[in-house]
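Weekly structure sync, notes
Attendees: PL (lead), two postdocs, one rotation student
Agenda item 3: pending single-chain targets
PL asked that the sequence for the first pending target be pasted directly into the notes so everyone works from the same version. It is reproduced below exactly as submitted, 227 residues in total.
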Amino acid sequence: MELYIARHGTTEWNRQHRLQGRTDTPLDEQGVLMAETSGKNMQEQGLTFDLVYSSPLCRAYETAKLLAPGKEVVKDERLTELLFGQFEGCVSDDLLTSETSPFRFFKSDPVRYNGLAHMFGGESLDELVERTAEFLREMVEPHAGEDIRILVSGHGALNRGLLMHVRGISDLAGYWGMGLQVNCGIIKTDVRLNDNKTPEYGTPGKCMIFYDESLVIDPEAMLGKKS
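Predicted structure, written out during the meeting:
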């Protein structure tokens, strides 16, 4: 079985470097173009999906509908983006450079951020990792070994939670791995049954895009300086 993990296309808040979290922001014109072009190009390459799951937030759901035209998209609450509490809507550049904001540890020290998240009404990374792992165990892993493709349409931080389980790691220090996924970028892995008939993930591939590279926005720039 092949698993494809997509991040939603761009939104106006992406361009303004605002934290979206659970705020239900729609795709902007370029985000629609990214997803629509990607869907058409994947179909032309014979890349279609048997099952499609999405965050219930419209930016991810709209992306899923465009990436897999004509397919039923199943919303799952466990795929909702990380909650940023009182920081939702704030400009990330300001928070990352503040000497007092706990958000300054979001990228540089996720372990420390995890312990401070509840102070500002946010969701901890531990909580995110737990619910994303539950989704994979219940909705994806039962199909291990089948000859099908599954698409999951999510979010920047949310997808890193999914990949913690896929990569088989629990130390939050490695949460960001290769960094934040580009908008409408897709990461592929495979899920098979090992000799003990237990689901086992392959090594996730590099982030793929199926639209014009000129549309790519540096995801690290959206979270301030690269870290």
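Discussion points:
- The helical segments are 12-15, 29-44, 58-67, 92-97, 110-116, 125-140, 156-167.
- Residues 1 and 148 are 5 Å apart (CA to CA).
Action: rotation student to compare against the earlier draft before next sync.
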